Fold this protein.
Amino acid sequence: MKYVPFGNTGLSISAITLGCMSYGESGKGTHAWSMDEATSRPFIEQALEAGINCFDTANVYSLGSSEEIIGRALADMTNREDVIIATKVRGRMREGRFGEGLSRKAIMHEVDESLRRLGTDYIDLYQIHRWDHRTPIEETMEALHDLIKMGKVLHIGASSMYAWQFSKAQYVADANGWTRFVSMQPHYNLINREEEREMLPLCVDMNIAVIPWSPMARGKLTRAWDESTNRTESDEFGRYLYGMEESDRAVADAVAAVAEGRGVPRAQVALAWVLRNPAVTSPIIGATKPHHIDDAVAAVELELTDDEVKTLEDPYVPHPIVGFA
């Protein structure tokens, strides 16, 4: 496994991050396709054996069940000081005004809940799970800064939002002597490249770590376009993100053509394309089959030619912004 600097921090992160949204009790939350603890643990162990040292989850994934599974598995399988645990806050966890969002009250409650579920004294990377339009960003940034001073959080990050919002958050932190975000988790893959316009150049300029979510477009780039899976049948958010443009199918066909020419799985090609962008630090991959991790690790060493990149990029057309809500 290759390890890279994590933006403006002293962390060294594996070139692949394991996303843990698929691990959680299916009866909790909206992820009917998630896997229970016994089914999930082998993937966490396989990731560790492959050299993956960063595990990304969120409080809202299966309403906390994902954090519980990850916390117990990592405690059993590795040393806490050898891994990076990343989780998120903002999504609705319970009824009531403070059951979601980025108010100081919500953040202070939810961080303790995440720490309890993860079974750890600190979170390596605590990320805001989108922008909160109801809470002043000053309140959010000060609360996150205080968590770091308390020792509950080591670093803070953000996820999909407009570049002006991310810039404003960083400015507010600088103006008040608070902690800046060290990472951005954007939506980025061959089907949706809109972050190349503003967010990725901004992150390069600020030396912000970039850990893209859905680098293989929720599997749309890894199989035949019309092929259905257990997840696609119940994944409403996935249907919202992909499949609206005929050009998307053309991109998927290009991935298939390049993969066939190379004699490798499509997943390796799609992920290798994301990894070749110098702005990208560590794409977040999901794994529900053993070959998912194998393909991700292999993609780190797969170098695409200029002609292959042109084949992959030529079908793309501009897309509306999705995934910021």
